[in-house]
Amino acid sequence: RFERQVIWLSLIALLFIACNRRIGTSAYPQPPAIVDATKLEEADAAVQQEQMIRDSLAQPYLVIMLKRTGCYGNCPVFEAKVFSDGQVTYDGIRHVELISLFESSVDSTWIQRVFERAKEINYFDLDEAYPSGGEPIPDLPTTITYLRLGEKEKTIRNNFDPPKALVDFEQWLERELKKLDWKKKRD
Questions:
Q1: For a FRET experiment, which of 30, 53, 114, 182 has its CA 20 to 30 Å from that of 100?
Q2: Which of 149, 108, 147 is nearest to 128 (CA)?
Q3: Which helix or strand (DSSP H or E) is residue 21 part of?
Q4: For residues 165 and 99, is the Cβ–Cβ distance under 8 A?
């Protein structure tokens, strides 16, 4: 019986010492470390740079653009831009129904439909300018389209003799943009 009590007391003492050590190391405050101010400034600058990168990545960016330039006649002149956050801007300049700056918005499904349509015509494989390998004709309008899908981006300047699929895509995109609920932009 005496041996049992000694064993129990020994176990309790071991537990107490073990627990007390853990508590003891965290119970007393650590002495203040000597800190190099330049290292703090470098760490702060690194944190600020990381935040700027995160902020820039979070900023809306251009994903779709359709622009029509003028000609010597009554060609429509406008520029429509669709941003990654769904915001859309329209700048109607001449010979269009909406003259001035307008805003609207689209959802991700709308943007996805544009990219699906572009994929159907192999947009990213088309030439960057039409006429291919030739000089643009100055008195003809130019239609400029831009698409950015992830890291892939492409601008096509269509002045003359493009593939029919590109013209159909441009016209389809213009019709889709006209369907949006445009509000005149306030300054």
A1: 114
A2: 147
A3: helix 2-27
A4: no
Q: How many Cβ atoms sit within 10 Å of the Cβ of residue 96?
A: 16
What are 102-133's pLDDT values in tens digits?
Answer: 999 999 999 999 999 999 999 999 999 999 98
What's residue 24's pLDDT?
47
**CA-CA distance, 81 to 87, in Å (whole number)?**
8
Q: How many CB atoms lie within 10 A of CB 165?
A: 13
Confidence of residue 16 (pLDDT cuts 50, 70, 90): low
What are the structure tokens assigned to 56, written together? 């820039």
- 146-162: burial string, b at 16+ Cβ within 10 Å, e else: bbbbeeeeeebbbbeeb
Residue type for 65, please?
A: M
Asked whether the predicted pLDDT for residue 52 surpasses 90, the reply is no
Measured CA to CA, the distance from residue 67 to residue 79 in angstroms comes to 4
Predicted TM-score (pTM) of this structure: 0.69
Confidence of residue 138 (pLDDT cuts 50, 70, 90): confident
What crossing angle do the helices spanning 108-120 and 164-178 adopt, rounded to 10°?
A: 170
